[in-house]
Amino acid sequence: MSCLDMPRHPVPDFLNKTPRDYNDAESMRPRVPSPVPLEARNGARVKAQSAAPHGVYLPNNNILTPAMRSPAYVQMSTAAAITLGIMKGMMHRTSCTRCLNLLLTYPEGCRANCAYCGLARHREAERNYADRNFIRVDWPAVPYDDVLDIMEAGGDGGRFHRMCISMITHPNSDADTRVVLRRWVERIHHVPVSILSNPTTMTRQDVQELKDLGAEIFTVALDAANPEIFDRTRGRGVASPHSWQKYWEILRAAAEIFGPEKFGAHIIVGMGESDYDVLTQVQTIRDMGGHSHMFAFFPERGSLMDHLPPVPRPQWRRVQLARYLIDYRGHRLERMRFDEAGRLIDFGYPQDELQAIIDAGTAFRTSGCPGKEAADISACDRPYGDSPPSDIASYPFPLKRRDIKRVRAQLEQGLPLGPHEPGR
Ligand code: SF4
């Protein structure tokens, strides 16, 4: 079994019994968070124990979670820790990631409460922040000086094409992001930096300062594809501080300050929105000059949506393909057709060219900020961040013939694609 295949939280049974074409809004309601006892709020247990950190902290391996804070400490994805040689492990069909994803860390954790997220505030009742799973994997905490030393000595073997700072929602994260960024650009000259921002605590001036300090790409995790789903999953619906308007304000500021091809937005597919909702955001962001980075909804263990079904593959594949056509083939939303529920029923794209794009497979790889390979190939490959290896949603490597066959079959469950040459 791959080290990144986390079997502890199987998809609920009923979800596998009824074939679903898409996740509708009615079914995708988050559960209500339980109250957090006073003695567990704001990282109180970690702060009371006040265990000093010693080197790398592997989640759930110690009795006491140390009191670690950015910028002295950062967390990194399991895949990044394996690539950097900080953790031992193997990944299914890939040996590394191309992006060093760093997460700011504090005993208080993220102060937001997003319903699909393993880092959300309601989890302080059951798990300390540094021990929480996020996009399906654990995130070891590492002294930032160690990360810089290893990178400066070439310890990644040139495998990282990008570094990304994930800000989370915390009163110190704006200032600490600047410190982490400044220290990186002073010492590491061969790996550009992306910012995964936290618009809720930011102003336009903050965006400008990150650009001035040397960030190359700025991203906003919209995550939800319409205002209602946003409010339900990361706003008032779950006692979380985010607002659709504020996220778009900062995204527009990023478009102006960072410029074309240097900003983007994350969107999760399958939280109750329609295909039309997602692709409307994708087209708007493309028209502004940016790109959309897509995530397949997966019920994260311990989150407020962990009882809900992952995005059905037919829905995911058609949106993945349509997004690729808009982002990298100059296609437009207006040329696609949708049914009355907003499901995509016609790509409006020449059949032979569509088949060639499916055969190439790039449309079905993980999407995100680019690396050194090509503009449409993401450095941020997030191995198994949105699916188990047994049913890959975002491929973190080039697709083989058998993968294409599977993707094509999933696409055709949702809408007929017309004839294609046998054997492809
Ligand atoms: S702001 Fe980001 S890290 Fe915090 S709960 Fe929401 S999605 Fe998770």
- The gross shape turns out to be globular
Q: Helical content, roughly?
A: 25-40%
The helix-strand sequence is: HHEHEEHEHEHEHHEHEHEEHH
Low-pLDDT sequence parts: 1-11
Query: What would you report as the Rg, rounded to the nearest angstrom?
Result: 21 Å
Q: Which key phrases capture this entry?
A:
424 residues, alpha/beta, TIM Barrel, 8-stranded mixed β-sheet, two-stranded antiparallel sheet, 12 helices, 11% strand, binds iron/sulfur cluster
Short description:
The chain is α/β, with parallel strands linked by helices and 424 residues long. The protein is 30% helix and 11% strand.
Description:
- The protein is α/β, with parallel strands linked by helices and 424 residues long.
- The chain has a single domain (22-414), classed as Aldolase class I (TIM Barrel, Alpha-Beta Barrel), CATH 3.20.20.70.
- 30% of the residues lie in helices and 11% in strands.
- The chain has an 8-stranded mixed β-sheet with strand order 3-1-2-4-5-6-7-8. A two-stranded antiparallel sheet has the order 9-10.
- It binds iron/sulfur cluster (SF4).
- Iron/sulfur cluster binds next to loops.
